[in-house]
Design a protein that fits this description.
It is a single chain. This protein has 537 residues and is α+β, with helices and mostly antiparallel strands. The chain is built from five helices and eleven strands, in the order βββββββββββααααα. 60% of the residues lie in helices and 9% in strands. α2 packs antiparallel against α3. The longest helix is centred in the last third of the chain and has 175 residues. 7% of the residues are buried. Keywords: Coiled coil. It comes from Clupea harengus.
Amino acid sequence: MKAYLNTQGLVFKLQPKITRVGRHQDNDLCLRNAGVEESHALIEWQGAEHCYVLTDLDSSHGTYVNGCRIHNASVRLSPGNQLHFGYGGSAYELIVDSSTPLPLLGRDQSAAPPVWVWGGAPINPHPPTRSPAPRTRPASAGAKQPGQSHALTPPPHRLGRSHAQTTLSHRPGQSHGLTPPSHRPGSWPGNTGSRSSARSPVASQSLQSLQHLLQEKEERVLRLGDDVCRLSVFESECVRKDHLISSLRDEVSALTHQLTHSQAQVDVTHTLNSLQTEISLKTQQIQDLKDQLCELQLSGEQVKQVVTDRDMRISSLRAQLDRLKSDNTKNSGLVSSLQGDLLSRDRHTLKLTAEIDGLRQDIRHKDAQLQNLSNKFSRKQQTDSLAHEEDVNTLKKSVESLDASLRDTKRDLRLISSDRDSLRERLQDKTQDLSSLKVELDRQRQQLVETQNQQQNTHNQLQVLRKQILQATTTATNPSHTPSDQEVLEAVRALAGQEGALQSRVQELQQQHIDKEEEMEELKNSGEEERRKRERH
């Protein structure tokens, strides 16, 4: 079983077992278009199922068979399937050659295939033994009317024929029939029982290519056999028409003989003229058929090309038919689902209609209740209006009394306002005194900070001096002279006296600061008391 991938006039032959497809150069089919992985897919021959299986190797963009995406899965392939790897590339058509492969030649086998082995007597070429498809037989010459065209019916499409095979070209002077195998290039002459003792150099180098060549030649022979079958029909028609012409000539001679005996009969003369006209027409038809036969022999290559184009068109139409069948299946499923949705919606509509009827009844009942409530509300509103009028009268009397009390309150407020103004003036005076005290307090705080800084500096100087004294006692230029303890104590006493004076000064400043804070507190307390008094008034 041989298979090919056909795309844009290029044919790629699949491997016998596994064909690897991907971007990497080690793959059997190396593709460079976008969306193809390093190892994209596998095409494997399954002998048990007698078919090819396409496996996608978890590619990012998937593999497409007849427009359906396959991702990380396997699918069986059929002849004519359109394969697409990734995106942006060409589509590949799977072509399967179902012809029986030729057996491999052994050492004791003849180099000629079984088709071309014959006996001593030469065998003439003959049409293929397999039963051809029914053909449309052309009408006979006697059944055709004058002026009718002579159409030729091309041979039907043969299933299983490879699209990769080549066609024979017509050469001037070459017969269109089959040539004997002994005169055909690439054939082996021989007799029954005789075997070739040596292989040709080409067969020894590439036996596989030789078998492929033999299969192509067999296909050519089959095509030529079809042409011979078709032309033999026309030849038989020509022979039959020749016999018909001879019989008509005999009739004409007989009628001529009768005409000599009955010259006066007008009907015989008319019949003779019609027969002569018919004979001339038949002769013209025979000549046309012969011309057509010559044209067919000359246009054999064109007929083969037309047949090839028609085969390709039939395969494409079959693929389109498969796609239409799949679309029809999908559409039928969609229609059934839509019908189910329509039935469910009808049920829902009936349910809603019943609910609407119930709601209408509830609305009528509630309208009656609302009418009763409105009557009750109108009666209650009348009673409430009467009570409201009585309340208004009482409120008017209370408002008059409140107006009198309001006038008294305003008079008291004027007195309180005058007291408040006097208190405000006193408060402003106290506030000014408080601000001056705050300024004085800030100044005292500044002095305290300066005194503390001075004390800290003095303390630091004392520490430095002490260190210097100790260093002087230990690292003097004259290490033999050591200061006495009395001298060191006197220096320390002097420093201690300075420190005591500074501390007394700091205490005085702190005492002053405390006094200022007490004064500020008294002023704040007095201000608070005045504010409370003002708030009471």
